[in-house]
Specification:
Layout (H helix, E strand, L loop, with lengths): L6 E8 L3 E2 L2 E2 L4 E7 L5 E6 L4 E9 L8 H8 L12 H8 L2 E8 L3 E9 L1 H16 L5 H7 L2 E2 L5 E2 L1 H9 L3 H13 L13 H4 L4 H11 L5 E7 L3 H17 L21 E8 L5 E12 L3 H15 L5 H9 L5 E8 L2 E12 L6 H16 L2 H21 L1 H15 L4 H8 L1 H9 L3 H13 L4 E8 H19 L1
Parallel strand pairs: 5-11, 12-16
Antiparallel strand pairs: 1-4, 2-3, 4-5, 6-8, 6-11, 7-8, 9-10, 13-15, 13-16, 14-15
Length: 482
């Protein structure tokens, strides 16, 4: 149904009825697409006076220079129509916003703003979009925000300093190796935040080229939630659309993240080393490939199984690996919602002598769950608690509740009405999973955790590496000064 000269409503979703004897709140979610520019809009219509905006782009890179992260910083330094640093935040404050922000994830970059009332949001929206689609990206901005060599001969820049502090953290090194093994040769294993050696090689021209390729209307999804009129919102976006049209044709759009992911067809193991002054503990990660993203029920079932295994003091892994055997101090889940969903476990502060034993202990514990201790009652209780938590989240902050589902729909799903409804209706999935039998859950555990290939990464601490890195950095700076 056409609601506006530029936009067509592609899909609509609202929750009907109740679950666990609790009525659903009144929330309507609609998906619109511009026939002129390809901009996507997902509107989460609520009674909330706070209007939230998340402006997302699907960003893919196969390099470690941190192009998505770098560009995220440069966007805020001015635009064609507002070519001064700080203008966006100053105008946002006048529109009763709590400032602007952004994040860079593996497969997307998202810019955020929240305002008190719709009037301020509508006023700031074209200005924010001008910064996103038409930033200045100047040499001076690049030098300040990304990388330069200061008067002391040291490397500086906001992005460079940020990444130099975290590049050699144990968790960073471990996860980088895990993604390299789970998704070899794809953008999912590239460093979207940037590695400092590659950031030093980055050029302004590369950043500008990356912006041209990915910051374009067909690759932009505006996820907006609150008490805001649909017609007014879409009309306001027309201001930006007119500028896009006036600038003339742009190169053909190539949708990101369409390269096939190599199948994980064998067990992979790798030991990595990270710098540390404490050699008594390390970390271990084990990860699997599961289902394509659009297999919503199966992927949610896997997440529930993982929570069953590690959530709470009575969970099997916590009881066996932490409390009873004392192998590590904590266990958390790793969840990558890409074109193929990948998930796993992160074991932190593993006793050094047990680092290479964790893998076998995990599978012993999994087999014990399958053969002896699995409780259908507990997994159903877990689902019910998730439903109640989701209802509370939906009531208090519907925008945040639907945000990840909307974002993943835009990046990883076919843009159809049926896919949109399936992506957003998590309660229907929960209700279905509540009806599953013992056999369903045991089959998932057996087929997808025990029998499928996996990746195991062991991260060992090294005092020598810490000393060597310090020496190498001092030597590099000395050579750079000369």
């Amino acid at each position: 149904m056409s609601v506006n000269s530029n936009f067509q409503r592609q899909a609509q979703f609202s929750l009907q009825g109740k679950i666990l004897d609790v009525n659903f709140p009144n929330v309507n979610v609609s998906y619109h697409k511009s026939v002129k520019t390809g901009i996507s809009v997902i509107l989460i219509k609520t009674d909330s006076p706070i209007v939230h905006g998340n402006f997302a782009l699907s960003t893919e890179t196969h390099e470690d220079g941190g192009l998505p992260h770098t560009l995220e910083h440069l966007i805020f330094l001015g635009s064609e129509d507002y070519p001064f640093k700080g203008v966006l935040d100053s105008l946002a404050n006048l529109c009763l916003a709590d400032g602007t922000n952004a994040w860079t994830d593996v497969d997307n970059t998202c810019y955020t703003i929240s305002t008190a009332g719709s009037e301020g949001f509508l006023n700031i929206l074209p200005i924010y979009l001008d910064h996103i689609l038409y930033p200045t990206i100047t040499e001076s901005g690049f030098v300040t925000e990304v990388h330069h060599i200061n008067a002391k001969g040291e490397n500086a820049g906001v992005v460079y300093c940020e990444m130099s502090e975290r590049e050699n953290e144990g968790s960073e090194i471990l996860e980088r190796s895990l993604l390299n093994n789970l998704f070899p040769g794809t953008g999912y294993c590239a460093s979207t935040a940037g590695r400092i050696g590659e950031i030093r090689k980055l050029t302004l021209e590369k950043v500008q080229s990356y912006h041209r390729n990915y910051y374009r209307p067909e690759n932009l999804c505006l996820i907006i939630g609150g008490d805001i009129e649909e017609s007014e919102l879409l009309k306001k976006i027309e201001i930006t659309e007119q500028k896009i049209i006036n600038k003339g044709p742009i190169p053909q759009y190539i949708k990101p993240w369409t390269t096939p992911i190599p199948k994980l067809d064998k067990i992979k193991k790798e030991i990595v080393v990270f710098p540390s002054e404490d050699e008594s503990v390390g970390n271990v990660a084990i990860g699997w490939h599961f289902f394509p993203h659009k297999e919503f029920e199966q992927n949610l079932a896997i997440k529930i199984i993982m929570d069953y295994l590690i959530d709470g003091a009575i969970s099997p892994f916590q009881q066996e690996l932490v409390e009873k055997q004392g192998l590590c101090s904590g266990i958390s889940s790793l969840k990558y919602q890409f074109a193929i969903n990948s998930m796993g476990f992160y074991f932190s502060n593993v006793n050094f002598n047990e680092l290479e034993n964790i893998e076998s202990k995990v599978f012993e514990s999994l087999n014990s769950v399958i053969n002896e201790s699995f409780s259908l009652e507990r997994i159903q209780d877990l689902i019910r608690s998730k439903i109640l938590w989701a209802l509370q989240s939906l009531e208090s902050d519907p925008h945040s509740f639907f945000l990840n589902s909307s974002l993943n729909f835009f990046i990883n799903c076919e843009q159809t009405e049926s896919e949109f409804v399936r992506a957003l209706d998590k309660f229907k999935l929960y209700a279905s999973l509540l009806e599953k039998t013992n056999d369903f859950w045991l089959e998932l555990l057996k087929c997808y955790f025990i029998e499928k290939p996996y990746v195991c990464i062991i991260a060992k601490p090294s005092v020598k590496m810490a000393d060597d890195l310090q020496k190498q950095e001092k030597e590099r700076i000395k050579k750079q000064r000369n």
